[in-house]
Design brief:
Distance between the termini: 39 Å
Radius of gyration: 13 Å
Structural class: mainly beta
Shape: globular
Order of helices and strands: EEEEEEEEEEE
Largest sheet: 7 strands, mixed
Length: about 130
C-alpha cells in the first residue's frame, strides 16, 4: 500500500511562499501520477495541481496558474508544490495524492481512485 506524508505547511504572510513536500513510500513511485488538493473548513476538496508519472506534464487549477509549481523527484520518491504569492483564501489543509489515473484526469477523479496523505496545514495571514 502506498503511504504518503506531507510536510512544509505552516504560517505565511499574504504574498509569501511555501514549498510543500510529499514523501511517498512506494515500490514503484514513478508509476503513479501525483496531485495536490486542498480543503478549507466547511469547503469541498479542491484540485490544485497534478503531474504525470514522469513529471514532464503538469496541470493546474486556473486559480493557481503562474503562481504554483508542481514537480517530482522519482529518485527520492517525492513530489513538491512550490506556492508563491499566497493569498489568505488559500489557507487550507493540503493533501497529496498518488494515483494510477493519468495526470490529465486527476482534477476530476474520485476520492477512491487515489492514495492520500493526511495533509499539511497551510495558514496565510492577511
Amino acid at each position: 500500500q502506498v503511504q504518503l506524508v506531507e510536510s512544509g505547511g505552516g504560517l505565511v504572510q499574504s504574498g509569501g511562499s511555501l514549498r510543500l513536500t510529499c514523501a511517498a513510500s512506494a515500490q514503484s513511485f514513478s508509476s503513479y501520477a501525483m496531485g495536490w488538493f486542498r480543503q478549507a473548513p466547511w469547503k469541498e476538496r479542491e484540485f490544485v495541481a497534478a503531474c504525470s508519472w514522469s513529471g514532464e506534464s503538469t496541470y493546474y487549477a486556473d486559480s493557481v496558474k503562474g503562481r504554483f509549481t508542481i514537480s517530482r523527484d522519482n529518485g527520492k520518491n517525492a513530489v513538491y508544490l512550490q506556492m508563491n504569492s499566497l493569498k489568505p483564501e488559500e489557507a487550507a489543509v493540503y493533501y497529496c495524492a498518488a494515483t494510477g489515473v493519468p495526470g490529465y484526469r486527476i482534477a476530476t477523479m474520485s476520492h477512491d481512485q487515489a492514495y492520500w496523505g493526511k495533509g499539511t496545514l497551510v495558514n496565510v495571514s492577511s
